[in-house]
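Handoff note, outgoing to incoming analyst
You'll be picking up this chain. Sequence as last confirmed:
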Amino acid sequence: MRIGVIGLGMASAPHAQSLLDLGDRVQVMAAYSPTPTRRQTFASRWGMPVTDTLDGIFEDPLIEAVLVLTPPNTHRHLVEQAAARGKHVLLEKPLDVSLENAEVLVNACEKAGVTLGVVLQHRFRPVSIAMSQIVAEGRLGHIVGASARLSNWRPQSYYDEPGRGTRARDGGGVLLTQGIHTLDLLISVAGLPVEAIAYAVTTPVHRMETEDLVAGAIRYENGAIGTVGATTCAYPGTPDAIEVIGTNGMARIEGATLIAKFHDGSDIEMDDGAVGGGAGADPMAFSHMHHRAVIEDFVDAVENGRSPKVSGREALKVHRLIEAMLRSAATGRREQV
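Most recent structure output, in case you need it:
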């Protein structure tokens, strides 16, 4: 697959390493950034060709797909351009800064008949796949509770970067930027909640526009309930966690570890190894292996005419949950997801 890369900032490193790993399946034809120093640094580090114009990517008939790694407020416009030219799109999360824009870009890809995949790589962890299988097979019995927790640390210097943590560029704070991964994983395992109530605040820990601490409760269609906690104030940062409780047992992922215990006395324990999670001051302190799995799945999806594991339509679910939680924090009421 011949691809173009759009955006060469902090998020590009795990993708670039993954593309090198997949060199027998993927060829980078051009990588674009409007910043000359970023283009030079990227080309020097990764040995991939760069371009100083977007048209060099969008107008090249040999480029079949684009990997979009730019800030969220640019996503709708770039995806619409790619779709209009018949190019498949692999898009870094979140879909966009608003649910409305997210829906527009998903619809644009569907209308154009191009594949849209979204980089929500936590679904590709071996422990995540195992937990989804445990729930799908009914080993936990009737699900009564499903919860998520993200306790990250970001120093003030992180939010001092221009645009970071603002509504205009990022669309939100801890939920849309960091918590989206953990919430998407929860949804992939337990399904999309139907109702949410939440508090969202900006604490004295940070000077920023959007929320850095959220506490909420969720309810599922089958009556199960759960809690959601997300913050970037938790120094020095701890692994994210999801927990599912059923009538026959409990399963929990914390970081790279899965523990499931059942009423019949059996249990499951597994560990992905020291892959890192970016919970601390360095948000990029993690292995690229799950990004590689996302890209490989996307290539397979295009080649075989199927949907990626995380399609645009699938990624809309976590946006709906985040939007409902923030709406609840603003209104003080329970909100439908």
